[in-house]
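Q: Here's a chain of 239 amino acids. Please give me its 3D structure as tokens.
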Amino acid sequence: MAGRSMLGRVRSAFGKDPDAVFAKVKGVIHVGANSGQEIELYQRHGLSVLWVEPNPVVFEKLQANLAGVLKQSAIKALIADTDNVEYPFHLANNDGESSSILDLNLHREVWPEVQYERTIQLISKTLPTLLRENNVDLKEYDMLVMDTQGAELLVLKGAAPILADFTYIKAEVPDFESYKDCCQVKDLATFLGPLGFREYSRHRFAGRKGAGNYYDIVYKKDPPDQGRKAKIFSSRSNS
């Protein structure tokens, strides 16, 4: 995402704290790490963190930033919905923060200074494959965070077999086509709703008239018996 330090100031201006949820979790898998701008945030909450970042240049910065940090580690990988697919990965000029497998679209209306500098080829993995190959114990993590510049739905589809292991899912997502064919707010709701995840919080942090808005959205998994209780209540009401 363009200018994370700038976004922090914008979020503060809106008077809301999109990061309060981290006081409720024990561990985070953060897909789309960039250089680890949230390292200190996660440290303050004592979280176990697995960072995943595909950009090889940015990944070196991430590893350097994690030196000496306890309970946090990183893996270099491109996460998508299918294993072993080659994707063009476009590297952006803002220290890689807006880099994506998707072409820029209305993103330019919000951040006109951002453009792609070059493209490299990367091979995808699904999140379950990555965790299995690296012997990651999923029990240490109860939150999935995604900052994958429009590819969030691909990450979720590939992670479908393990999504029930998370209590919270957080994504930075627009309500407009920021990247060509990108995941939007409506797509998250459509995919996560049938899996028992409901919107827990939403914080607008950027936008422009004529384009749309960007949000931090957190989804929380329903308690195991909530769906059953809802069905019983509905049945009684109709009897």
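Q: Can you summarize the key feature?
A: The radius of gyration is 18 Å.
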